Structure formats: C-alpha cells, structure tokens
Amino acid sequence: MTERWPVSPLVGREDELGALVAALETVRQRRMATIFLTGDAGVGKTRLVQELVGRAHDAGATVLLGGASDIAESPPFWPVASALRTMLRSAVGEPARRLLAPWSDQLDELLALRAPVPAAVARVQTLELLHRVVLRLATESVLVLVVEDVQWADRSTLDLLAYLVANLPDERLLLVATHRTEPGAEATAARTTIRELSRHRQVRGIDLAPLRRPDVAALVQAGAPDRPDLVDLVWTRSAGNAFIAEETLRAALDGDPTALPTTLRELVLHRIARLSPPALRAVRAVGMCEGPLPHRLLDAVLGGEPWGGSWLLDALREAVDAGVVEVDGAVDGYRLRHGLMTEVVVGELLPGERMDLHHRYATGLESAWARELPGVDARLAHHWYGAGDRERAGAAAVAAAEAADRVRGYAEAHRHWLRAAQLAGELDGAPVPRATCLERAAEAAHLAGDADQAVALLAERLDLLEPSDPSDLAHDLDAALLHARTGRYLVAAGRGREAAEAFGRATAALPATGAEPERAEVFGGHAWALWTAGDFAGAHEAAGRALTAARRAGLAAEEARALATLGFSLAYREDAQAGEAALRESIAVAERAGEPSGIMRAHRSLAELLSGPLNELDRGIAIARAGIERARELGLARSAGAGLLSVAANGMFRIGRWDEADATIAEAWELAPSGAEALELRLARARLHTGRGRFDAAEDDLEAVEALSAATAGPRYRLPLLTLRAGLAMWQGRPDVALDHVAVGLDVVEQGSDDVWLVAPLVWHGARARAELTRLGMRRADDAIVARLRRHADELARSAASSVPAVREVVLGFVAMSAAEDGRAAQRSDPQAWEHVAEVWRAHRQPYPAAYAHLRRAEALLSSRSQSAAAAESLRHAGEVARDLAATPFLAEIADLAERARVRLDDVVRLPDPAQPPAAPAPDDELAALTARELEVLTELAGGHTNREIAQRLFISEKTVGVHVTRIYAKIGVHSRVQASAVLFRARPNGR
C-alpha cells in the first residue's frame, strides 16, 4: 500500500488561478470582487481554493474558510458562522477578537446559536451584524471569505452573500464560493442566487472544465515520476476529472493496473476495501458525521467496540495514511478526504448500520460537553430523525427551530418547524402541538420572504379548527386572528386584493359583541395593511373601526396606532387639517401611554405627509428634525431617527437643498441603521446619487434595496425602487431599460394601490422613456405598454379628484408632464404644454422638475425654429438650476442641446466658444475643408441618422441638411453616405 499521499500539485489551472490572483489584487485596491467557482464533482474546485488561500495568507490577508453541509437541518449562516468561530478561537484570532469587540456579545450569541428572541426585522439585523463584522475585518487587511459547496448552503447564507455583494462594493473583500454542477439542479436556490448576482458588475463566474491530457500527464509525473506508462490509463479512466485521476493513480500504484475499477464508486470501494475492519468502521463513522467532528465526539460514537485498547487511534492512523481520512485541524478532529468519497461510503451502508450510527451520534451529542459544539440542536434533530426515534426527533426539531429563530435564520427555522409539525401529527403528547408548529412555521416562512408558503401553512392551520359551535367564542377568535395574520402576510407579498379578502374573513369571524381587544387588533392590522398597500380609502374606514374598538377596550397603544393611520389617510384624501390633528393626537396618546414606537410612528407619518404628498416642504422638514430629537431622547435614533432623517433628506431634495440633503443622508448613515430604515435611507441616497451623476453608487444602493426587500414586494418600497431604477437608466442613455422597469412597476400598481402620489412619477418616467426612444431612434415602444401608460395616466387624473387639493395638484402636474412627453414621442412637442408644466412645479417650489420642463420647452421651440430668444431664456434658466444643484447629467443634457442649437450659455455651463477659431488641422486632414456646421452634419450622418432626423437634432430645416450633405460630398470627394462615414472614421478614429 502507498505511504501517506502528499497534497496533489495544482496542474492545468493557470488561467483560473490567474483570475483569482487578479481578483485578489483588485481587492487590494479597495474594490470588492466575488468569484463563483463552478464545475463537476471532483474537478478540482477545492484544490484551486487551497492554492488561493495559501497565497492570500502569504500576502497577509485574513481568511475565513467555511463549507456548507449536505443536510436539511443545517444551522442558519452555518458556513460563515463556523468560519468565524474557527478563526476567532485559533492562535491567530486574538487581533480579530479585539477588532470585533464592539459586537462580541452579539457574535457570541450568533456563534453559539442562542441569541435572544428577535423582532420582526431581526433577519435584516443579523445580516447587518455579519455585514459589519466583515466590513470591520476588511478595514484592517484584505479579507478572503470562502464558502465551499454553496449548492448545499442554507437560505440565510445565500441571503448573506447577496447582502455582502450589494453592500460592500468598495471594500477589501474577496468573496469566493464553490458550486457543484449537477444535471437537473438549475432551479435550486443556490443556482438562482448565482444567476441573480452574476448580473452585478463585480461578480464573475469561473467554470472549471476537466483537465486536458497534458495536465493529467503532469499529475502522474508528480505522483509517480518513474511511471509514465500510467498516463494513458489515468487519462482514459478519469476523462480529466482530477479526483478520479488521483484515485486511479493511487489504485494503480497499490496493485495490478489491469484489474482497476472503472467507476468512481468502484474506485472508492476499491480503496477502502483494503482497510482493516477497525479502520473501515472508523471511516464509516466519519462519513456519517455532518458538521465538525472533534476526536472526542468520534470516540463517544465508537465507544464500546470489541477491539479494545487504542484501536481507534490505530484505525484512524491507517485511514489517514491510506488517503481516505484527513485531519481537520480547526476542530482537532477528522473528515473524509473528499465529498465524493463521503457520498460513496455513506451510500454503501446498510439501513441498520445507518440507524445505528445516527443513534450513536445523537447519544454522543446529548452529552453536556457537546452542547458547546456549534449547531448542536440542528445536528441532534438530524440524527434522532435518522435513528427513527420520532419522540426525541420531535423534541430536537423544536429545539433546532427555536435556535434558528433566535439567530434570525428564518428559512431554517421554517424547515425545522415543518418537521416538528409532521412529527407532532404522528405522536401522542408531542412537546409542541401541531397547530402551534404550523403557526410558528408560517411566521418563519413570512420572515424568510416566502409569503406563499406562509399563507399555505396558515390555511393548513385553519383546517385544524373544529367546526364552529355558535357559542364557541374562542374558536371564532382563533379563526379571526389567523385570517388577520394571513392578510398581513399577503400585504407583505404585495397581494393587496387577496389581503383585503383575508381581512374580510377575519372581520366576519369576529363575534357580534365583546372581544374588543381582539377586534381592535384585527381592525388595526387591517388598517395598517391597507395603508402599507396604498389603499388609503380602505385604511381610513378600517382605522375608524379600530379606533372605536381600541377606545372601548382602553388600549392606548392600539388607539395611537389607529389615530396615526386614520390621520394620514384623512389628510391624504379628505381634510388635511383634520388629518394633521389626528396625527398630533396620536403623538399625545402615545406619549401618555409611554409607547415609544407609537410616538415615533406618528411623528414619522406627519413628517412624511407634509414633506411628501401635501408638499408643505419646509414644515415637513422641520417636523422631521423635531422628531429626530425626540427619537434620540427615547433611544431610538438608530431606527426611527434614521427613518426621519431619510424623510427630511427627501424633502430637501424636492425643495432644491441638495447639499443639505447630502449632509443629512451622511448623518443618518453614521447611525448605522438596519431593517426598513436602511432601505429608505438607501432609496433617498440613490435619488441624490442619480441626480448628481454618481451612477455606480446609485446602482449599488438600488441593488442593496432589491436584495434586502425580497420579502417586501408591496408598493411602499417597490414603486420608489422601480421609479428610481427607471430614472437611473434614463440618465445612462437606456430608455429601453427604463421602460422595462416602469412596466414592472405597473404590474405592482395593478395588484391594488391608490397611492397616486407614488404612481404618478412612475407613469411620467414611462412617458419620458417612450419619448426618448423616439428621439434617439431606438426601438419603438410596443402598443401594449403605450396603452397601459395612457390608461394609468387617465386613472391618475380621475383618482386625484378624490384627494385633497395639495395631492391633486402634484399628481396632475405629473399627468401634464406625461401628456407633454406624449407630444415629444409623436414628434409634436408643444412648448406651451411645457411652459404650463414649468409653472406648476415653480408654484410647488420644486426647482428640479421645473427646470426639466424649461429644457423641454426650449427643445420644442428650437424644433419649430422659432422664438430662439425664448428658447435661450428657458435653456439659461434650466442651466442655472442644474448648476446650483450640481445636477451633472442634467447639466450635460442642457449643454448638448445648447451646442446643437448653437445657443450661447458660456456663463452657465462650460461649452466651447463657437466664435473661437478651431485648432489648425493637420496638413493631411481629409476634413480640413469642412466648416464646423458641416462637420456636425457629417457626424450625425455617420451615426446613421436620416436627413429629417439630422434636421430635428440640429434644429435646422431638412432642406438645409441636404445642402450641407451636397457640400460635404464635394469637399471630401465622395458620392455616398457610406463613403463619407468611412472618411470621418478614418480621419477621426476617436470621434473627435
């Protein structure tokens, strides 16, 4: 038998290793990089990662190396949590422990899986905790985070990868994940995550192909330098698979090459068949372990075997020397050399052998000392279930679910609660009733972002209710509260109509009299859900009923919540003064009740209402600032305070105080907000980034919001997100992409929302994108989206009539903009329509959209080749606003129009002086004879524009274009557009 096999050399991976090293260098320059290494099992992903890790260590980087486990009960965040745990407990972990001291308590709870029970936003809080840990480590040195076998990763780990990619674009982080490709596995959560993240500009996929024949020859040369005769054999049997090549070579060196096995399974079995019975027993036990296997646990599992003495140590030494078992230094324990080997070894066990080993592991993990092992509850659930002990498996599943809940691993908690519910249905006297397990599973699914599953589980829970006895009040209340919770989940999923039906069932299930606390809860939840979905009419009605019930029951907190919802809805639709009074009463009630969340909810609603729909910008900003001070007094600066700063920044953006908005956003970011407040702050920052031309930063923020709001598909976040995405695409010159974002936004609107204030800018962006498609000669908007946009614009005009005057006027301003854009799309832009739009926004003290309207008015005037003085005045006004706001992309568009129309705006925007003679051309310049205007016409012509389009773009007549083209042909000696274009590209290869 061969001696202990050395680490195999890395062969045939020069290009892939070069890409990884280049990514590491990119990260050293403070630009995050993510690499997904994909390939067949055994192709060499782990060996490539080992080489990268070695180089990273040599370069002084911090390395976190973790791997996912192929068990359904894997603890949440397992690969990253275990990597952190290993690093912090290692000999080199002391500097990292000092760095992470501010989060030591939270980290201890996370890594031990015993964090306190979280709030509803705790999933995002845990993601934010790990984000800050990674960020802190990356500030001291390059951080390399490796997650192996991501195809088995838990949902929480996949969410974390997306969170890090979205949140750390400019940090020294190299994220590497390996993924095993298997036929029929394209629809897995891991593959979906990889596909979604691959659209990010800092994410790259590397697919490892099998080794080539020369690479296999190099592998044989390294392992058996005196046996070149084995190259053909190893190449034929392995087809370039690195693991099979190594195993084939080992088998050939261990015996008769003519009797070599021909399949992977046979290769592994051939190797382990040469072990002694004690070594084979140890190998099988190691293979059955999921998760870290310290020696103490293996000793407990195999205790009582008949061989006596030091048999286990001798058996392990034999297995290690044979290249079957590896020492896992991180836990002072063992693992099999490769995942493929594990699959074969476990697959060969008899059912009784598996159950016996599961029972031994479960018994060993119940020892007091084993409680310190990471993920012990999930491992116990796995092993007791595998051992066939349903009673202990049920108790372990409940413990694992609660452990996952505590660390916000809601996807994993959902899976454990489902297992507990299944077992509870099979057992008498289950530790937790099946009904409770289903409710907990539904809540975990909701928090994990799987609204469909949450709703389905509550439906199953409702089926468990016995037929109602007319006198059974408890039954009716249970049904009402379950239906109300279903409605809440549906609202979070953006399914407004279905949510309304669920709350209708909840209301119908309430008893005719009594049960006022439950009635207040159902009505209040219904009102809040409708408000979140943008149904302010329904929210108004439900909040009124909730207020009555809360006052009857003497529930001050419910009364304050109902008043806040009622006040906003009332001010939005009917009476601004009465609505503001209700909001102020909500603050007072919450203050008397000592209800901090109620106090801040009402402050937030009032500030948002004034600085948004009611357009009382100065007052809204002032109230937001006052609310921030109260948040600090209540210790809620990081949550409610940051949210109010976002509201203030949005108001400042609208009123044109962009520098102040920038400072306010920075102030909020210093508070390190998480959850909903982090989403709102990123949306506010993306709006300002886009306006000022910081497109990459805006893209990063919007990607982060998209990653974090997967469980919040309702209009409150989706509509602003999609509107901002459309606006960003417009400034990037992609109206086609912008129109696609608008179409998705209209899908959200059509699911049920009457928040006309949010819908109106989305519709305008669609009309603007359609007009730009026409102007740029890109694809024509299809009839279906045009019809949808017009239908929604008409609906906005009708719906606005039922709102208060302030909301109505703003919405009608967007409707007027949309109509004016339709004129542009039809190439009949109306300067008077744009003049009206400019006046609307001037009256509303919103300089940015007013300046945009002035730009379009100038464009319309110049297109008609009349009133050039009025056009110049509008352009100058737009330019001054853009300059004062530092709205770089807007200023560039103004400059472009001015240059094409030959309007002088030198004191407003920096433009080349048309009166200044051009630089002397080179003696051999083929275009030297052309005038400046003729060169402009030639440039447009080479861009593929017709004479008519050139006339529109340069604001001259089509006849004048024809004269210019004739002169150009004569001066440069050509006879066609193709020849003229060739001369331009030859003389001006850079377009200058």
Offer a quick outline of the entry.
With 992 residues, the protein is mainly alpha-helical. The protein has 47 helices and seven strands. The strands form two sheets. It has a five-stranded parallel sheet, sandwiched between helices.
Description:
The chain has 992 residues and is mainly alpha-helical. It has 47 helices and seven strands. Strands 2-3-4-1-5 form a five-stranded parallel β-sheet, sandwiched between helices. A two-stranded antiparallel sheet has the order 6-7. Strand 3 (143-148), helix 7 (155-167) and strand 4 form a beta-alpha-beta unit. It is globular and about 105 Å long. Mean pLDDT is 84; it is low at 1-5, 113-121 and 911-923.
Spell out the key features of this protein.
992 residues; mainly alpha; globular; 4% strand; two-stranded antiparallel ribbon; disordered N terminus
What would you report as the Rg, rounded to the nearest angstrom? 34 Å
What ranges have pLDDT less than 50 throughout 5 or more consecutive residues?
Answer: 1-5, 113-121, 911-923
Structural class: mainly alpha
How much helical structure, as a percent, in the residues?
A: 55-70%
Strand order of the largest sheet: 2-3-4-1-5
Distance between the termini: 73 Å
% residues in beta strands: under 5%
Shape: globular
| Distinct helical segment count | 47
> How many strands?
7
The overall pLDDT average reads 84
Main sheet: strands, sense, barrel: 5 strands, parallel
